[in-house]
Amino acid sequence: MSAATFDAIVLGAGAAGMMAALTAGQRGRRVLLVDHAPEPGKKILISGGGRCNFTNIHTAPDRYLSENPHFARSALARYTPADFLALVNRHAIAWHEKTLGQLFCDHSARQIVDMLVAECRDGSVAFSFGAPVTAVDHGDGLFRITVDGRERTAPSLVLATGGLSIPKMGATGFSLDLARRFGLPVVQTRPALVPFTLGEDEALFRSLSGVSAEVVARTGKVSFREAALFTHRGLSGPAMLQVSSYWQHRTPIAVDFLPDAQSDWLLEEKRVRPRATLRSTLARRLPERLAEALADRLSIESELGNCRDAGLRAAQERLARWPFQPTGTEGYAKAEVMAGGISTRALSQKTMEATKVSGLFAVGEAVDVTGWLGGYNFQWAWASGRAAGEAL
Ligand code: FDA
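Predict the joint structure of the above. Result:
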């Protein structure tokens, strides 16, 4: 029996793969979209708490991590948040801006998946869902894959199986393994946008599980002002997830618990409310339990009026750069994305095609481009998928 032939085979029916497939299909290419999961877009369905934070209006290349920070520029400039929003509006999907430029569906992430599936159907994309790919070969200018016992061939193959985060949901290193097989370098991968774990010496903070506060979290030269959340294992919340992408093992992170306070705030409080304790003073700006834990750690029990100025100044400096030494992160099981991946050195920034393997493309999270929290990763998936889809 002869193999079914296509112009392109896209491996992975997630955000990037569906965008690549629908773009190529609507350009008249015969496309086969393959996924081992029985239905497409599983990560889209759980994203943004089920409402999919599908883009961010502040998308810019400096909000992405990559060995080559300029790589994403071209694709992001050619397919923008406004372009994706136009598609969302065309499908009459209600949306809202939540905070910091993050756009969410009003109702359900399912609408985004349905929209992408409908667009794929518009492009007559063929689907193969729910069966594993058991072989991938390449020769005579054709890629051959075996799925469900049948061989399918195409002159182009798109690696779009995403990253390693949430293996429970079927995430695999398939694209990374295939890339290596085709001689493409892979940048060391690591969990990103992931909660930190704290050790025994910081157990006091773990007892604050569930408490959150707006802070500025810093690692190295980057800082993020967002909410931090204490968990029974360590630190989470947007501020912590953001810095985790930049964090190097065994380095401390610094947290400013008083981002809006003047540098002499405690001295001023001493003047105005000398009978107040540090704990009650901190509780004016922070959740009660956190104020208590911080005051305990600072060992200032007497009333502010009885404290020396130097002691209060030192306490405030500590509160503005509170050091935490994470023991690690919660790993891929809890990471929103994978950092690292197929090296951008091996790919054309215009088309996402491998420079040394004609017809081989890589898109989305499998590539070494990782966005900030807040819709940036989907925007990269749409933009890189679009770039490949236009070149297939
Ligand atoms: P994606 O993971 O979407 O798709 C890969 C596809 O390949 C999957 O359908 C998978 O089944 C398939 N596949 C894997 N291995 C295969 C194999 N061996 N054979 C065949 N198929 C295979 N981002 C954002 O911008 N806004 C948000 O709100 C969120 N929220 C969010 C919540 C949670 C809990 C997570 C885990 C992640 C997010 N993200 C996010 C990140 C976002 O989901 C992610 O960056 C994109 O889905 C990446 O798109 P891709 O298409 O590259 O991979």
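The pocket of dihydroflavine-adenine dinucleotide is lined by residues 11-17, 34-37, 42-43, 46-48, 52-53, 133, 160-162, 165-166, 170, 172, 174, 336-337, 364-366, 375-378, 381 (CB under 6 Å).
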